[in-house]
Specification:
- By secondary structure, the chain is α/β, with parallel strands linked by helices.
- About 35% of the residues lie in helices and about 25% in strands.
- The protein is built from twelve helices and 18 strands.
- The strands form three sheets. Strands 1, 2, 8, 9, 10, 11, 17 and 18 form an eight-stranded mixed β-sheet that branches. A seven-stranded mixed β-sheet has the order 6-5-13-14-15-12-16, with helices on both faces. A three-stranded antiparallel β-sheet has the order 3-7-4.
- Strand 17 and strand 18 form a beta hairpin.
- The mean pLDDT is about 95.
Length: about 425
């Protein structure tokens, strides 16, 4: 066993794990990070749209330079067909972030703060004792006061199996390609009113919860896809390949990656004893669109504060009271959209039931404001009784959840029973 007992071992060096390591080390904790891959391959490998407020709240400096890709207008299109209904919006303070560069920056800042990062460390088992946690890897074992699982969906599962089913898993992929024919690329983007940095999102292209997200930056095109294969749809990678193959103006591939993203509501239990989870391992993903970067950064800040104060369980209470309802409500909304047909998606967009302010709220990972646009959407929904009934049921379930999350117990001894009520309410 290592001679030095750590205050914290973080399993996973992606954005959430590396951010937590930096924050904890800066607060004076002795931190070790164990990453199963090499450090340069930790985390996501694509451009992700992240709300700016999550950087500010977490204390992580906003991206700049090559790490930042300008996010302009977002156009949501109901399928590929000419004349398909479109919704255009300019999300406020949405940052296009090169995830590899963000993770690299966070890892470097963690090491400068005093954290030790080790790549190629496969965790084989965890011995959770009363006064410490012992982590066994392929090369040795390490003792620590606290362990945090930031290893993602397919990681060490330190808090046990994730809840949810195969229908709560998004198969996502992104590739960056050179543009072979600039004139043809111009024509493609102009047909959707998109300029440099704008994002065009084709939704429901494989039915239900499936998107193809396309962005141009200089002489490159970024294609991000996602779907739920358990619904009988092709994977994100298959959708991406089909999109590229059908457009000769897209040239050689430069880089890419694929991963499975948990879409279900955040774990109701984030802490057990000396072990906690953060990021994808905690299912802290805004499932309405499958992004977890910003949530992971904010959760890392909450967790670092709890660790520094010596009250790990306060992280659970802080997260659930602040964000639990928001993420659970959007998970219910995701399930509803996942069940929609292409025609129903066209109705939502074409008739203004899904409108600009609602899209702003989703991209900002916030609740929509109760304003005139919501009343207009309600009137439009009233002309579609079948859809209206489904949205009414959604509203009723969210109201019941609001009462449940408002009563999250601070007493750790009561949190397991509360979690069971959440699972029952979410179905």
């Amino acid at each position: 066993m290592s001679d030095t007992r750590r205050d914290l071992i973080v399993c996973g060096a992606g954005s959430a794990g590396a951010a937590l390591a930096r924050m904890a080390a800066a607060r004076g904790l002795r931190v070790l990070v164990l990453e199963r891959r090499t450090l340069d391959r930790a985390g996501a490998a694509w451009v992700n749209d992240v709300p700016g407020w999550t950087f500010d709240e977490s204390g992580v400096a906003r991206p700049s330079g090559d790490e930042l890709h300008t996010s302009g207008t977002l156009t949501l299109v109901a399928g590929y067909e000419p004349g398909a209904p479109r919704l255009r919006a300019t999300p406020r303070d949405l940052l296009g972030v090169d995830m590899q560069k963000l993770v690299g920056r966070l890892q470097e800042s963690a090491m400068r703060a005093g954290a030790e990062l080790k790549g190629g460390e496969h965790v084989r088992s965890i011995d959770h004792r009363e006064d410490e946690v012992v982590v066994h890897t392929a090369t040795g074992k390490y003792a620590t006061r606290h362990l945090v699982d930031a290893s993602g969906l397919s990681g060490i599962e330190a808090l046990g199996k994730m809840h949810g089913t195969a229908r709560d898993l998004c198969a996502a992929a992104q590739q960056v390609h050179r543009i072979r024919d600039a004139r043809a690329a111009d024509a493609f983007f102009e047909s959707y009113g998109a300029r440099e940095g704008d994002v065009t999102v084709f939704t429901g292209v494989a039915g239900g919860y499936s998107i193809v997200n396309v962005r141009r930056h200089d002489d490159r095109v970024f294609v991000l896809t996602g779907s739920v294969p358990a619904d009988g749809h092709p994977s994100g990678k298959a959708m991406l390949d089909a999109f590229v193959d059908a457009r000769p103006w897209i040239g050689e591939r430069e880089l890419g990656g694929a991963r499975v993203i948990p879409l279900s509501y955040a774990r109701p239990v984030l802490v057990r004893g000396r072990i906690a989870a953060v990021g994808d391992a905690a299912s802290q993903v805004f499932s309405a669109h499958g992004s977890g970067t910003g949530a992971g950064l904010v959760a890392a800040k909450m967790l670092a504060d709890a660790l520094a104060a010596g009250h790990l369980s306060s992280y659970q209470h802080a997260w659930q009271r602040r964000f639990g309802l928001l993420f659970a409500a959007n998970d219910l909304f995701r399930r509803l959209t996942q069940s929609l047909t292409q025609d129903e998606l066209r109705v939502l967009i074409g008739e203004g039931i899904l409108n600009g302010p609602a899209l702003h709220a989703v991209m900002a990972q916030q609740f929509p404001a109760l304003d005139r646009s919501m009343l207009q959407a309600g009137r439009a929904l009233g002309r579609r009784p079948a859809l209206a009934r489904r949205f009414a049921r959604l509203g009723g379930r969210i109201a019941r959840l609001a009462a449940l999350y408002a009563t999250h117990p601070e007493d750790a001894g009561k949190q397991n029973a509360w979690a069971e009520r959440v699972h029952a309410a979410m179905g």
